Amino acid sequence: FMLSMLGYCVGLGNVWRFPYLCYDNGGGAFLIPYLIMLIFAGIPIFFLELALGQYASLGSLGVWKAVPILKGVGYAMVVLSTLVAIYYNMIIAWSLYYLFASFTSVLPWHHCGHWWNTQDCMESSAVANRTNVTANFSRASPSEEYFHNRVLKYSSGIDDPGTMSWELALCLLLAWIIVFACLIKGVKSSGKVVYFTATFPYVVLMILFIRGVLLPGASDGITYYIKPDFKHLLKSKIWYDAASQIFYSLGVAFGGILTMSSYNKFNNNCYKDAIIIPVANCATSVFAGFVVFSYIGYMAHEMKMEVGKVIATGPGLAFIAYPEALTLLPVSPLWAVLFFFMLLTLGLDSEFVTIETVVTAISDEYPWILRKSKYKITVLLCACVTLYLLGLPFCTQAGIYWVTLMDWYSAGFGLLVVAVTMVTGLSWVYGVRRFSSNIKEMIGFEPNWYFKACWMVISPLLVSFIFVFSLVQYKPPTYDGRPYPAWASTLGLVMAFTSVLMILLFGIITVCRQQGTLLQKVRSACRPAAGWGPANLRAEHGPGEHDSINNASKLQVDNIPLQ
Q1: Calpha distance 231→39 (Å, rounded)
Q2: Whole-angstrom Cα distance, residue 306 to residue 138?
Q3: What is d(CA 243, CA 35) in angstroms, rounded to the nearest whole number?
Q4: Cβ(202)–Cβ(195) below 8 Å
Q5: Residue 20 and residue 426: Cα distance in Å, rounded?
Q6: What does the pLDDT read at residue 283?
């Protein structure tokens, strides 16, 4: 379980997103708000989800028997996971494409002169030999043109889809086949795979780190990475970026933590897991920063450029700047194979849990049918086929614009609203005393005052702070300086707030299904549903007794006061 959760949390974002944010926010100064957000938001919310899923042994939909009025939070998590799974597997498909292209004697993005290169293409050696490099010097690198003109063949915008790339479509198909094959026997089979996929990236990172720090100029890159610029602490952006990185890297409010912990033994020490996993995840980000910036420093040294001029943000760091750095190493195809295989394993770990979240949620809604092995495999197959078909637009010439659009919106505003609703609902509606008592049933002691204070006040306020600033700083997306049309931005906003609508819709439906006056309906919808409790208690009753147990338990549940 520990490796599965670590593999889920440690993903592609640890390799390129954290180093960029640290670079963009004053180097070492970024670590201060980063650690504050980890302590007061990341770890407490991670523990809350971990404990809730383990106590009920249910996925992101079933656990909301605890607070029926918040059943929409579970559906919102499924929506978020589905949207992310669609475009995340496209990034894995790009990794597969580069992995296959690396099995050659000379990397195809090493030199200019190919049919996809333009007259602006200039190799690193040509830059290094220039004597008149200026601060405003810019060029089109072979790796950049390979990514844009060969892999993506990208068009002028999202409204110009162009043609379908059969190469990318096949890579995407292979990515989904790998996901299906590894999850075909459920979480146990993915748990065996994760022994390799969760540990291999650390081996590669260590190899690349040792090689990188020995390169000339590496110290310049590392100094740039860790040098603090404390004036950035006075800006709101550094706090927002630190909080968002903690949030997304740990995977809270996506439902994946609930899903994975639902397979735990009832007495598993989830308190220990909730400390070790987030700390290990954040340590991985920091270490990946040293690896990345050692190579960026080397690139700057070789090309006689400033460190700040050679770094690319977002997907560019993984698919443009890093491949270019690999061409500067001896036996570059070997290093390229190791690097892109590492990206593949990083992405697959997170994709495994994301898909398992969706399938487990569906299975929990129809437990007497879909939890049978053959039916669950059918659900998994249908999910993979459907998501593959929905991902085919990413394989067109406008694919990069669609990936950027979904990455920008799908898990943005909605994710923050889901997190605030989840933490507030469990702390104030279900009751922090009742929840603490449930945790004591599992591990033998209640969480301390730190966790209770974070759940009730500190974490909701911090996440609300993130949400407010994300609205204040909202800007429509762009890619490569090209703005999106109004219809695309509108579609993105619809994706962003679909999960919020799920919370409202299913909350209203749950209230309407209750009996009595409006106030009585609301109070009834806020109490735990009949049959709520540990899985071992529910297992004592077969499906034939299901209705009679619910009716009998309902009378007891109605007498439980709100806490």
Answers
A1: 22
A2: 12
A3: 9
A4: no
A5: 35
A6: 92
C-alpha–C-alpha distance, residues 172 and 552, integer Å: 50
**What is the per-residue pLDDT across 427-444, written as a single tens digit (0 to 9) for each?**
999 999 999 999 999 999
Q: What is the Cα–Cα distance from 190 to 349, expressed in whole angstroms? A: 9
The percentage of residues in the chain with a pLDDT greater than 70, rounded to a whole number, is 88
Q: Which residues contact 339 (CB under 8 A, 6 or more apart)?
A: 204, 208, 322, 326
3-class SS of residue 396: strand
Q: Which two tokens stand for residue 276?
A: 């070790």
Cα distance between residue 47 and residue 278, in whole Å: 10
The answer to whether 70 and 503 are in contact (CB under 8 A) is yes
Helical segments of 102-186, H only: 124-128, 142-145, 166-183
Q: Which amino acid is at 467?
A: F
Q: What's the gap between Cα 227 and its chain centre?
A: 28
Two tokens, residue 119: 């007259």
CB of 271 closer than 8 Å to CB of 100: no
Q: What is the pLDDT of residues 5-15, one digit of tens each?
A: 777 788 887 88
Residue 42's pLDDT band (cuts 50, 70, 90): very high
The alpha carbon of 527 is separated from its chain's Cα centroid by a whole number of angstroms, namely: 32
Q: What are phi and psi of 479, to 5 degrees?
A: -135, 125
Instruction: Name the residue among 83, 79, 172, 80 with its Cα closest to residue 385.
Output: 172
Residue with more model confidence, 48 or 557: 48
CA distances (Å), origin 504, targets 73, 244, 507: 9, 24, 5
In this structure, what DSSP letter does residue 235 have? S
**Nearest by Cα to 29 from 225, 169, 197, 207:** 225
Strand partners for 482:
479
CB 180 within 8 A of CB 380: yes
Give CA 419 to chain center in angstroms. Answer: 14
Burial class (CB in 10 A: 0-12, 13-18, 19+), 189: middle
